[in-house]
Amino acid sequence: MPVTILRGVSGSGKSTYAKSVPGVVCSADDFFMVRGVYRFDPLRLGEAHAACLRKFVSLVTRRTSVVVDNTNIRVLEMAPYVAVALAYGARVKIVTVICDPLVAASRNQHGVSGDAVLRQYSRLMEEEIPPQWLHVEMATHISGKLPEVNEMLRWEYRKTYT
Fold first, then answer.
1. 3-class SS at 92?
2. Radius of gyration of the chain from Cα atoms?
3. How far is CA 49 from CA 70, 103, 108, 156, in A?
4. pLDDT of residue 111
5. Are the C-beta atoms of residues 5 and 68 closer than 8 Å to each other?
6. Cα(111)–Cα(78) distance, rounded to whole angstroms?
7. What pLDDT shows up at residue 24?
8. Contact at 8 Å (CB) between 68 and 90?
9. What pLDDT is attached to residue 67?
10. Which of 27, 101, 131, 160 is spaced 20 to 30 A from 40 at the CA atom?
11. What is the model's pLDDT at position 161?
12. DSSP secondary structure code for residue 150 in this structure
């Protein structure tokens, strides 16, 4: 069963890409959806991520393909997902969606400030993924739009480690 863990700044296109990947999407954003309206509460962010991880564990233990759609800027944020997935024999792929932070800031759906997106971008670029994890970087178009699904393979830069 494949597990895809997306990472990237707010507004980079992770959720758009997640729709094209087979599997059930797990996102901390789901916690903040109230009758179809996104109502973010920063005081409940820890609860949101805990709920996302619980959903992920439930799906992985049932051998379901999963896509984790969170910013996952730091390795520390991805590590629980990777550990659980590997414990259940899943094939894990990390996909980093690279996007110009100014473009991402202008289109993010959750009101994340431009300064916060720039901080996310800086941390994203400096964070090193453990060499044993399969990691793919995918750049969005300069326009800020993700390439069409059939075009994505041309945008991927593969780093495969054993």
1. strand
2. 15
3. 9, 26, 19, 28
4. 82
5. yes
6. 23
7. 97
8. no
9. 97
10. 101
11. 32
12. G
Which residue type does 111 have?
G
CA dihedral 30, 26, 107, 20 (to 10 degrees): -130
**Full pLDDT tens readout for the chain, 162 residues:** 999 999 999 999 999 999 999 999 999 999 998 998 888 888 999 999 999 999 999 999 999 999 999 999 999 999 999 999 999 999 999 999 999 999 999 888 778 889 999 999 999 999 999 999 999 888 765 444 544 433 443 333 333 332
Instruction: Report the CATH number that the domain containing residue 52 is assigned in CATH.
Output: 3.40.50.300
Query: Please, are residues 110 and 29 in contact by the beta-carbon 8 Å criterion?
Result: yes
* SS3 of the chain: helix, strand, coil, percent, to 5: 45, 20, 35
Q: What are the E-state strand segments in 2-155?
A: 2-7, 24-26, 33-34, 37-38, 66-69, 91-98, 134-139
3-state DSSP assignment of residue 128: coil
CA distances from 59 to 31, 52, 96 (A): 16, 11, 22
71: left (phi over 0), alpha (psi -120 to 50) or beta: alpha
Q: Which domain holds residue 131?
A: 2-159
CA-CA distance, 30 to 28, in Å (whole number)? 5
User: Into how many domains does the chain fold?
Assistant: 1
